Amino acid sequence: MNTSIEAIAADAVRLPPDQRLTLAHRILSSVEPVESGEIDAAWEVEIRRRIAAHDAGSVAATPGAEVFAELDRRLRP
To answer: What are the distances in angstroms from CA 51 to CA 40, 58, 74, 76?
Structure first.
């Protein structure tokens, strides 16, 4: 890792927890894509389509606990 990044990280971890959270949020916000009404509308349509398919029984649902257990199993070294 770049030396300046190491120095910044070393300084950052010495900040109080609330300031570390604020810093993390600012950094993450700086790389998030710009919001788009068109994308949000497309997701809304897709969400409604998936809910309708679930309600109609045309798709199988997997309980969340099973999904996370499977992810844990797959991600274990």
So the answer is: 16, 10, 27, 31
pTM of the model: 0.49
Q: In whole angstroms, give the CA distance from residue 57 to residue 34.
A: 35
For 50-63, the pLDDT digits (tens) are 999 999 999 999 99
- Helix/strand/coil (H/E/C) assignment for every residue in the chain: CCHHHHHHHHHHCCCCHHHHHHHHHHHHHHHCCCCCHHHHHHHHHHHHHHHHHHHHCCCCCCCHHHHHHHHHHHHCC
